[in-house]
Automatic annotation (TrEMBL):
Organism ancestry: Bacteria, Bacillati, Actinomycetota, Actinomycetes, Catenulisporales
Alphabetic keyword roster: DNA-binding, Transcription, Transcription regulation
Gene Ontology molecular-function annotations: sequence-specific DNA binding
SMART domains cross-referenced by the UniProt entry: HTH_ASNC (SM00344)
Location of the HTH asnC-type domain: 179-239
One GO cellular component, as annotated: cytosol
Protein name as it appears in the record: Lrp/AsnC family transcriptional regulator
Pfam families: HTH_AsnC-type
PANTHER family: LEUCINE-RESPONSIVE REGULATORY PROTEIN, TRANSCRIPTIONAL REGULATOR AZLB
Cited InterPro entries: AsnC-type_HTH_dom, Tscrpt_reg_AsnC-like, WH-like_DNA-bd_sf, WH_DNA-bd_sf
Length: 264
């Protein structure tokens, strides 16, 4: 039986660089080095190791969906079927987040979709899956914060303020209006790597580099797109994910199958 190797916990310098990326996902090496008091060589080497080694990913995310279009799902599954159901959900574009219980029999997911699409998944597709034993769903009425709002406490307020782009610091997120074909091409290209250069984006999308640079700046400045840093919590020394009831406003949807609740 192969022994499971625990991931190495990142040191304080790496944590500070991650916190800097949370302020600006497209942060340059030169700016990071200047604000954090590092040499450009050290900053470049450390950032390259974090991003190239898979410890950290910077992706692009769309603004939050409007209230009422997002649901929280709690899905009970048969033991041994967790990976199969999780993989199927992760492949869906309308599933924004997935978490698995330590016990291996429950999945928590965030579903962002219109009413018709939600109903098909919650009331038809999931209950019809033999590996799923129950589904409960709640409609989100108000979001206080989500994963893109979390900041690692490794910077001073002055450093955080200097690293956050001035034009976006006080700009609220706004829902994307009708995006142009160019905007959609850029958004799709940045989904898995928000640090792609304008030259790389131009090559991927087939648009002129100058046009790409201008539109990308506008999308980020207006917060139509935001950057999100993804890091394994265990690499930060956070071994336990403990949660109680979500701190959001929700409207319950009748669970399937009906369940009894006991209080005591």
């Amino acid at each position: 039986m192969r022994e499971q190797v625990e991931p190495e916990v990142l040191d304080q310098l790496d944590r500070r660089l991650i916190a800097a990326l949370q302020c600006d996902g497209r942060l340059t090496v030169e700016r990071a080095a200047r604000v954090l008091g590092l040499s450009a060589r050290v900053a470049n080497r450390r950032l390259a190791a974090l991003l190239g080694g898979g410890a950290v990913r910077v992706v692009a995310a769309a603004p939050r969906e409007r209230p009422g279009s997002t649901m929280l799902l709690r899905i009970k599954v048969l033991r041994g079927k967790l990976d199969t159901i999780t993989a199927a959900l992760a492949a869906r574009p309308d599933i924004a987040f997935i978490d698995m219980s330590a016990g291996g029999d429950e999945i928590t997911a965030v579903l962002s979709a219109e009413a018709g699409q939600r109903s098909r998944l919650v009331f038809r597709q999931l209950p019809a899956t033999s590996a799923i034993t129950s589904v409960s769903a709640q409609t989100v009425l108000h979001v206080y914060a989500d994963a893109t709002d979390w900041r690692l406490d490794a910077l001073t307020e002055a450093e955080r303020g200097e690293l956050t782009p001035a034009e976006t610091a006080e700009t609220p997120r706004r829902p994307a209006a009708e995006l142009s074909p160019l905007d959609r091409d850029l958004a799709n290209a940045l989904l898995n790597d928000a640090r792609l250069t304008a030259a790389a984006l131009a090559a991927l999308t087939g648009h002129p580099e100058s046009t790409v640079r201008r539109r990308l700046g506008a999308l980020l400045r207006d917060r139509v797109l935001i950057t999100h840093v993804i890091v394994d919590p265990r690499r930060l020394g956070l071994d336990v994910d403990a949660r109680s009831r979500p701190r959001i406003w929700t409207r319950p949807v009748a669970p399937w199958p009906p369940t009894r609740r006991c209080t005591g």
